[in-house]
């Protein structure tokens, strides 16, 4: 079968070309055609030699995503369901804002880590996406949204790996796709504009720091192990102290990296005048974002906020509080706005930056935690749940 050119980063493509007698710099040209120009037709790649075009036509292809559904929410959020074969579909969400456009990308078909409050986890798990299927989501969004990178017209300015799946459980493919996102011959995004969110797979957080240190978001959701064990079951394997130590190593590693030219770091959000200890110590620009889903009566009390402050101390971080987004039979309720504000105020008073995530696209089930896609579950989880529900 022909190989998918979207599966390669520049280095991988150069190796593939060299093995076929081509010069390595050809890889950069092909990457530019593919990703900056969005060109999938080899005949249009006019500055490649005829023999190279013939080689590509014979041995390679560009597996463009096929759209099964395309929905636009009242607030402009757009969600695509993309066909990934054998009855499976993954979701990709574009969130337009005044000064930026964020694309939320999936990394797996479903997810094997049954977080209690997550619709994707509820779907079960089918398989990892290939690197081509991951970067293909950005490729597709750029085409669908009329971006022209070659002419400097960017529509997607930020990417978040916060769609379906646990990205660190699909490490190699995710890292290849991240490298393409950062590559100047492809999407040229700064590493601060690409964020990977993990539920806390500790050894892979360290590997990511070595392989491709993009911005890190960690799904914390609870301030103590007893509660986190229930909400984010992977905590039983890597509990909070191990997770926080990995976060600290990550930030320290990232802070040692050279600062790139595109250092368009986001300004602190309005209202967050607070300065944490680390900001007072010379404003390092790298931090971990802790995501915390606000579940009514479960993790949203002043006591939880106090525990959280004690837990984190002065790790360079920001908190992002996410109002729970409901889905059928979710079993949780969203915290009332007053509880969210009180929780936020507590964190800010303690010197942390804390924002509340705006819920976008919920009328098309495009908000955080609502992505269900189309998953042919291979974990038997959905069947087990149905049996349990049927039991007397
Ligand atoms: N698997 C990764 C990334 C995908 S989820 C992770 O867990 O981090 C992106 C964020 O949405 C995570 O913080 C996740 O915990 C959160 N989330 C999941 N279900 C949610 C829901 N129903 N409402 C709000 N946020 C949710
Ligand atoms: Fe998987 Fe993330 Fe959902 Fe947990 S929150 S089930 S890790 S997608």
Label the structural class.
alpha/beta
Question: Could you spell the SSE succession in H and E letters?
Answer: EHHHEEEEEEHEHEHEHEHHHEHEHEH
Query: What ligand molecules are bound, each kind once?
Result: S-adenosyl-L-homocysteine, iron/sulfur cluster
Count of individual beta strands? 14
The chain-level mean pLDDT equals 90
User: Helical content, roughly?
Assistant: 25-40%
N- and C-termini, Cα separation = 50 Å
- What coarse outline follows from CA principal-axis ratios? globular
Structural Rg? 21 Å
Q: In percent, how much strand structure appears in the residues?
A: 15-25%
Largest sheet: 10 strands, mixed
Across the major sheet, the strand order is 3-4-5-6-9-10-11-12-13-14
- Tally the helices: 13
Low-confidence stretches: 259-284
In short:
The protein is an alpha/beta fold and 392 residues long. The protein has helices at 10-18, 26-36, 50-59, 119-122, 131-144, 171-182, 202-211, 225-231, 240-255, 277-280, 302-312, 337-349, 381-390, and strands at 3-4, 60-61, 66-72, 78-83, 89-96, 101-104, 108-110, 125-128, 158-161, 194-198, 215-219, 288-294, 317-323, 353-356.
